[in-house]
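Try this one yourself first.
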């Protein structure tokens, strides 16, 4: 792989604008090369055809393993090509800049090289300033984590009240802040918050791991370790508990009960020093350290990749220009903040033992696996099963078509009964499979265009599903449902009982129960972390006002709004199997007033979830746009209600109300999709009527997507205008309309997450914000100021 592609693949996508523009600098060097080719005679060497079995570059003279810079074919050192000096503008608050003076600008083609070095300086200054800014941020975060760790350790002492014995008579009761050491313990430290630094994280206690780690320590080594530990703790300084007087806990409610308690009762957040608070605080601190360490890793990679890029581009310059400028420029790179700063490496060296000691109980393997989760590898088994199940699905579809034709089931006297009773049961699985296929296509496109969807959804690293896994799940469900259709395709009724076979008729209900059991299956198979993530998000949607709304929650609620017909199918399951005579394939659901009422309620439930989420965000974030978004969903609720009432009662008045409300909801929804969710239709953008930044190079795709979105949003017209197709059963037509909405949602998904990704890129936001468990009092902050 060429370095340019490797460089692009290693970029932090949210920081891509802050990286050195390697491709543009290569284009400038190509301009230099083209000028030299135009003005210099080309000397070519003829080689008999077929005599070379290797690349020509493999016959070049070897430069040695220890030589960093090329010396052959370059000019002597007296011919200095460039002079690089730091420049600081008087009275300017900007950081120190670097400027290259090109000494050969009067040579033929020198103006091209002058442009190259000017752009090279701009890129280098951009990289250095960005790196310096990010390092400053992580140092501030390190200081804050230090303060938080001191509070956490004090809270551990207060809650757990530990008592340790060193030697035979020395007892330390940490909870009482009392120390009894035979040789005279040093007094307890009482460090003020402003004097804390990340150095405090690198504690003396890190010198020894747990004595019983992995069962490798014998009795003799245990005694030796005890002597070492006693030696280490002779100057043992337990954390001061006074720090607890200056902080308050910051544990956000995570259950509906805790949220209601916080609303109805006093909102004091003082410590009660409970084990629950300690556990939650440790979880938040663990997440904060993991996110902080990931930031350090990516920042270190940013520094290394940019240094390598400058080295590569200067070697290319030397090769093209036959000058010796790389050595001088790269010496400047090494001496700059980018090359000489080691704060990030030191922080990583301190964070690792701290995390292992405090959050992995001294188990280094466990701690490092948590800090550095392995990237999930694609398995051949997944690809094989995907192909196998996809082939089985196609074969089952063909089998169903053949059986329908051979048995002439379309003209069977019970075919209408089958379509009215059985088809709605199996259409549920069709909706789910189609949605999964669309989401699989979304993941494929997001990965292809390097959209950081795991970060956007807040997925734990290494647990996100790829498009193959989602496609595999959809293929598996497709095989199960199609196999069930074949087993339930019999239309021969028993003449004695006038009913169908019991077990055959229970196949759809059994398949639904199997899916529900798989979804909540607690064992670590079938992508447990993803299933748990989905269940938690669904639970948050169910209790929308009682949870802080995150992107996965409202994204899932948006998906549910496109599955209204699937919700109605679930309602039909209950009516058909509990109030209908399923053995005779007969029901009276549509004549039941309770069923009709629930048919309306079920249709508006997903939109109700989104409305409540918008209200919660409006009250919590004070964002007026959330109020407008809530009005959009409220208009959709009215439109769905009017259409449902019109389906039941008919009449010109209800038809007018259904059309009017649907038109208003369609206009509002379309505008919100295109302008707010997708960020398009910006007249003054660099890409007229789109937006400034686009991931897809084909701009026509965006215009086609907007037109398709508008057209598919008009699918509700079938409900009001009652279109009829002679060759299609009304139930099939309803399923097709519902499928079109699912397809529209799949298209919406890609552009919605694309826009979210570009917003993160614009703000260089590559890490999620983890709330810290402790807040300092305002009075303490004023003293620090």
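Now uncover the answer:
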């Amino acid at each position: 792989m060429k370095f340019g592609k490797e460089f692009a693949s290693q970029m932090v996508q949210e920081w891509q604008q802050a990286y050195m523009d390697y491709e543009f600098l290569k284009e400038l060097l190509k301009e230099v090369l083209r000028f030299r080719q135009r003005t210099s005679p080309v000397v070519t060497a003829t080689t008999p055809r077929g005599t070379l079995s290797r690349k020509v570059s493999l016959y070049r003279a070897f430069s040695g393993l220890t030589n960093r810079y090329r010396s052959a074919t370059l000019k002597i050192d007296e011919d200095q090509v460039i002079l690089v000096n730091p420049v600081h503008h008087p009275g300017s608050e900007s950081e120190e800049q670097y400027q290259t003076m090109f000494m050969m600008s009067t040579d033929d083609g020198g103006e091209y090289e002058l442009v190259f070095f000017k752009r090279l300086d701009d890129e280098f200054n951009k990289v250095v300033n960005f790196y310096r800014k990010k390092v400053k941020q992580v140092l501030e975060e390190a200081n804050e984590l230090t303060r938080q760790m001191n509070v956490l350790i004090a809270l551990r002492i207060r809650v757990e009240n530990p008592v340790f014995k060193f030697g035979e008579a020395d007892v330390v009761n940490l909870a009482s802040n009392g120390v009894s050491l035979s040789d005279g313990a040093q007094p307890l430290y009482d460090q003020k918050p402003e004097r804390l630094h990340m150095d405090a994280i690198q504690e003396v206690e890190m010198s020894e791991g747990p004595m019983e780690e992995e069962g490798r320590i014998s009795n003799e080594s245990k005694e030796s370790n005890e002597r070492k530990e006693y030696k280490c703790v002779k100057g043992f300084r337990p954390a001061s508990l006074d720090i607890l007087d200056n902080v308050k806990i910051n544990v956000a409610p995570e259950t509906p009960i805790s949220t209601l308690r916080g609303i109805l009762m006093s909102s004091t957040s003082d410590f009660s020093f409970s084990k629950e608070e300690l556990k939650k605080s440790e979880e938040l601190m663990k997440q904060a350290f993991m996110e902080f360490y990931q930031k350090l890793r990516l920042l270190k990679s940013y520094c290394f990749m940019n240094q390598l890029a400058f080295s590569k581009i200067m070697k290319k310059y030397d090769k093209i220009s036959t000058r010796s400028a790389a050595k001088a420029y790269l010496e400047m790179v090494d001496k700059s903040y980018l090359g000489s700063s080691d704060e990030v490496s030191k922080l990583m060296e301190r964070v690792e033992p701290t995390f292992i000691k405090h959050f992995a109980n001294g188990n280094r393997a466990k701690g490092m696996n948590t800090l550095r989760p392995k990237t999930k590898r694609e398995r051949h088994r997944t690809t094989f099963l995907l192909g196998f199940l996809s082939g089985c699905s196609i074969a089952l579809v063909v089998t169903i078509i053949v059986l329908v034709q051979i048995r002439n089931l379309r003209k069977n006297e019970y075919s209408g009964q089958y379509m009215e009773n059985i088809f709605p049961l199996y259409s549920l699985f069709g909706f789910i499979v189609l949605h999964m296929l669309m989401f699989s296509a979304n993941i494929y496109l997001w990965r292809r265009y390097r959209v950081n969807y795991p970060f956007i959804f807040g997925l734990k690293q290494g647990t996100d599903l790829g498009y193959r896994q989602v496609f595999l799940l959809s293929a598996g469900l497709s095989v199960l449902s199609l196999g069930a259709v074949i087993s339930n395709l019999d239309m021969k009724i028993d003449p004695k009982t006038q009913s169908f076979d019991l077990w055959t008729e229970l196949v759809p209900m059994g398949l639904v129960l199997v899916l529900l059991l798989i979804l909540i299956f607690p064992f670590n198979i079938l992508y447990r972390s993803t299933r748990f993530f989905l269940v938690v998000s669904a639970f948050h949607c169910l209790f929308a006002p009682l949870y802080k709304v995150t992107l996965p929650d409202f994204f899932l609620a948006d998906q549910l709004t496109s599955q209204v017909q699937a919700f109605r199918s679930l309602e039909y399951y209950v009516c058909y199997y509990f109030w209908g005579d399923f053995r005779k394939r007969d029901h009276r659901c549509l004549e039941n007033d309770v069923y009709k009422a629930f048919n309306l309620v079920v249709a508006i439930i997903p939109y109700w979830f989104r409305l409540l989420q918008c209200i919660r965000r409006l009250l919590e974030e004070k964002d007026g746009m959330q109020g407008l978004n809530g009005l959009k969903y409220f208009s959709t609720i009215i439109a769905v209600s009017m259409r449902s009432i019109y389906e039941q009662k008919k009449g010109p008045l209800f038809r007018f109300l259904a059309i009017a409300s649907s038109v208003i909801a369609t206009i509002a929804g379309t505008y919100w999709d295109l302008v707010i969710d997708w960020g398009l239709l910006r007249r003054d953008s660099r890409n007229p009527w789109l937006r400034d930044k686009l991931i897809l190079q084909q701009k026509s795709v965006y215009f086609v997507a907007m037109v398709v979105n508008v057209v598919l949003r008009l699918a509700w017209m079938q409900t009001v205008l009652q279109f009829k197709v002679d060759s299609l059963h009304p139930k099939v037509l309803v399923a097709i309309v519902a499928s079109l909405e699912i397809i529209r949602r799949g298209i919406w998904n890609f552009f919605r997450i694309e826009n979210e990704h570009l917003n993160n890129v614009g703000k260089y936001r590559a890490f999620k914000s983890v709330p810290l468990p402790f807040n300092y009092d305002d009075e303490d902050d004023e003293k620090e100021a």
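Discussion: The chain is about 60% helix and 5% strand. The CA atoms of residues 19 and 127 lie 6 Å apart.
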